[in-house]
């Protein structure tokens, strides 16, 4: 398991001020416990309720509890407000700090005035508002932090299924049970029928059906055999597997995903920034209205009238509902996404969806299965027969995990060839793989390489094989073309549905691929794409992303390997296939199950999330927009001042509406053709 403890993460409490996750949880519960007696013993907005407990000295008890709450629970908000003010950008923390600061100072004044000086009429205190605001704001930030945990709920469940021990087999075949924490990469483990797989591994021998549903969301068991990869936490079926450990602890798949989720907490979405801006506007509005109300009432009445009115304005601006508006929606949205195989690394991406104009996507592994089958194997020299060509290709590709390499190795295995890795292997990105075999340097290259080097090849033969939808690779020795292999791929079932859905949403699908033009055109035509760019290097794709960005927002969908620059450059980078390091580093969204149909779900969820955030911000701010001027006495000339009871009811109703609205967020099923 990863050493990242989800209970000890930090969260941003306001432009750089960090609150420890454990502290946040503890502060909330302690503040909640202190708030209960405060609510029972203090009036709400000056109004005593039937259930409240008032006795001689209760004001002093409330003052003591309120003071502890103010400094213990509210301290983080003042630190956040300080950071915002230093940046000259007052926002949520400043608004909260103003509300609880004014409420506390005035409430202490009220307790002293009422109990020591016995002023008449008595001065109302705001300890009820102070305590509830602190608790609700801490709850909102705790919910926001728990968003990280909700996003990882599916993979956390996987982590809980990891066994306590692994069966390690030594070179002599002896099996010893060792603690999972002591398991090392490179060790051989035996996974018996029905057991949980202890770590990421590669199968050495055995065949079984493996249940990876907690990772991919797919309930169907996946057949696994020699050289296939296993994910730690998946459940083995009826067969016994022997495998080499490839990842444990921080290097395992689960740890990578946990790191991904941990990183996500620091990415504040635009709507969260919008919530901060709304809070900033309310801060200025309340400050202006409060000062103006104080001056006006001091002029037309006296200090005894002006001061309570100004304080009421500052306190009534407390953003109870606003503090929950975004965290509740984000929490619900991220949990829904995780349940449906979507891991959101950067929530900013969700804010870009409504402006999307183009969806650029890779072909292999995105629109197609990425499982290549050798359809044609041709020797172009008398010195090598077809089997020798395949042997050389397999030797060159033995260390590669590229889909084309996998197809070649599968064909070599089917022919019974013994693969011996070439030495001094190196790759020229987008062009080919090179290495030394028996003292001679060979290469397996694309047609782009042949054209760049002006090497001779049969163009008619290339066109014929490519027109069938094949990806074609050539075997070289120096400048001599020795042979070729043509491999075919299958289109993913949901690819056409994705393209159709994008068009319906006004998003233009564009296919970018390093493959040849003929194959690209055939795949594009099959799924309904008319804009195709082929024979591209990774830097070409990134350049095209930038060119399309000149026309509008761009979504890029790729496999997270050669597409890393484009994933990072696009407004939304979406990686098909979650197990690669580069996907975690470069993409904003990870599609765990590698299903193009999940792109549709993400777009629908992102739009619904943005809509709910906007609605909640209006509900949260709407109360303040109405209540602040009424509390300031704007309608006093016609005999109306905001009734404390009405203000309390509307404030509570606004908070309830925000919570209910967030919980109604749902994710749509993927439409079928």
UniProtKB/TrEMBL annotation:
Q: Where in or outside the cell is it found?
A: Cell membrane
Query: What's its catalytic activity?
Result: Cu(+)(in) + ATP + H2O = Cu(+)(out) + ADP + phosphate + H(+)
Which EC main class describes this enzyme?
translocase
Q: Which residues cross the membrane?
A: 60-79, 91-113, 125-143, 278-300, 306-330, 617-640, 646-665
Alphabetical list of InterPro entries matching this protein = ATPase_P-typ_cyto_dom_N, ATPase_P-typ_P_site, ATPase_P-typ_TM_dom_sf, ATPase_P-typ_transduc_dom_A_sf, ATPase_P-type_domA, HAD-like_sf, HAD_sf, P-typ_ATPase_IB
State the PROSITE patterns in the record: ATPASE_E1_E2
**Membrane topology listed for this record:** Multi-pass membrane protein
- Keywords for this entry? ATP-binding, Cell membrane, Copper, Copper transport, Ion transport, Magnesium, Membrane, Metal-binding, Nucleotide-binding, Phosphoprotein, Translocase, Transmembrane, Transmembrane helix, Transport
- Record's PANTHER family? ATP7, ISOFORM B, CATION-TRANSPORTING P-TYPE ATPASE-RELATED
Q: What is this protein called?
A: P-type Cu(+) transporter
């Amino acid at each position: 398991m990863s050493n990242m403890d989800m209970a000890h993460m930090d969260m941003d409490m306001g432009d750089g001020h960090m609150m420890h996750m454990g502290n946040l949880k503890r502060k909330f519960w302690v503040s909640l416990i202190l708030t209960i007696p405060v609510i029972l013993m203090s009036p709400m907005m000056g109004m005593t309720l039937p259930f409240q407990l008032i006795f001689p000295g209760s004001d002093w008890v409330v003052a003591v509890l309120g003071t502890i709450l103010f400094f213990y629970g509210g301290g983080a908000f003042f630190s956040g407000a300080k950071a915002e003010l230093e940046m000259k950008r007052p926002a949520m923390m400043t608004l909260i700090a103003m509300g609880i600061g004014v409420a506390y100072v005035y409430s202490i004044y009220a307790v002293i005035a009422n109990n020591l000086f016995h002023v008449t009429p008595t001065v109302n205190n705001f300890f009820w508002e102070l305590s509830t605001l602190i608790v609700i704001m801490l709850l909102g930030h705790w919910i926001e932090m728990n968003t990280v945990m909700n996003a990882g709920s599916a993979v956390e469940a996987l982590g809980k299924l990891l066994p306590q021990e692994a069966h390690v087999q030594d070179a002599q075949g002896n099996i010893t049970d060792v603690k999972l924490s002591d398991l090392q990469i490179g060790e051989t483990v035996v996974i018996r029928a029905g057991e949980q797989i202890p770590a990421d591994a590669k199968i050495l021998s055995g065949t079984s059906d493996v249940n990876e549903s907690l990772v991919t969301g797919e309930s169907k068991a996946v057949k696994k055999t020699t050289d296939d990869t296993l994910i730690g936490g998946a459940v083995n079926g009826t067969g016994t597997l022997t495998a080499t450990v490839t990842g444990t602890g921080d290097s395992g798949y689960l740890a990578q995903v946990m790191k991904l989720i941990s990183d996500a907490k620091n990415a504040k979405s635009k709507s969260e920034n919008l919530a901060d801006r709304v809070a900033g506007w309310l801060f200025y509005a309340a400050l202006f209205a409060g000062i103006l109300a104080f001056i006006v009432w001091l002029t037309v009445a006296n200090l005894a009238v002006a001061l309570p009115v100004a304080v009421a304005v500052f306190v009534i601006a407390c953003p109870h509902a606003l503090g929950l508006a975004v965290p509740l929606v984000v929490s619900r949205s991220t949990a829904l996404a995780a349940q449906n195989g979507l891991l959101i690394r950067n929530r900013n991406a969700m804010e870009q969806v409504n402006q999307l104009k183009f969806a650029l996507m890779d072909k292999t592994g995105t629109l197609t299965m990425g499982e290549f089958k050798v359809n044609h194997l041709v020797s172009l020299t008398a010195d090598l027969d077809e089997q020798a060509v395949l042997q050389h290709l397999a030797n060159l590709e033995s260390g590669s995990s590229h889909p084309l390499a996998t197809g070649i190795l599968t064909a070599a295995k089917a022919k019974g060839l013994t693969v011996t890795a070439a030495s001094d292997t190196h790759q020229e990105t987008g062009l080919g793989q090179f290495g030394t075999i028996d003292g001679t340097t060979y290469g397996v290259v694309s047609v782009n390489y042949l054209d760049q080097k002006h090497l001779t090849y049969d163009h008619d033969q290339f066109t014929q094989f490519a027109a069938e939808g094949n990806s074609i690779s050539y075997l070289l020795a120096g400048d001599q073309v020795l042979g070729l292999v043509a491999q075919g791929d299958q289109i993913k079932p949901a690819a056409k549905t994705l393209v159709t859905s994008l068009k319906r949403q006004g998003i233009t699908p564009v296919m970018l691929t390093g493959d040849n033009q003929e194959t690209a055109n055939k795949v594009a035509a099959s799924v309904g794409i008319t804009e195709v760019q082929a024979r591209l290097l990774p830097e070409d794709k990134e350049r095209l992303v930038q060119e399309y960005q000149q026309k509008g927002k761009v979504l890029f969908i790729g496999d997270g390997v050669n597409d890393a620059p484009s994933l990072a450059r696009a407004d939304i980078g979406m990686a098909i296939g979650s197990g690669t390091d580069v996907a975690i580093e470069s993409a904003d969204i990870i599609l765990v199950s590698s299903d193009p149909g999940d792109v549709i779900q993400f777009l629908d969820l992102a739009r619904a999330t943005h809509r709910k955030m906007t609605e909640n911000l209006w509900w949260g701010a709407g109360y303040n927009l109405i209540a602040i001027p009424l509390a300031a006495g704007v309608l006093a000339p016609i005999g109306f001042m905001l009734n404390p009871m009405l203000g309390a009811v509307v404030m509570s109703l606004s908070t309830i509406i925000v919570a209910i609205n967030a919980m109604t967020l749902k994710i749509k099923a993927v439409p079928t053709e």
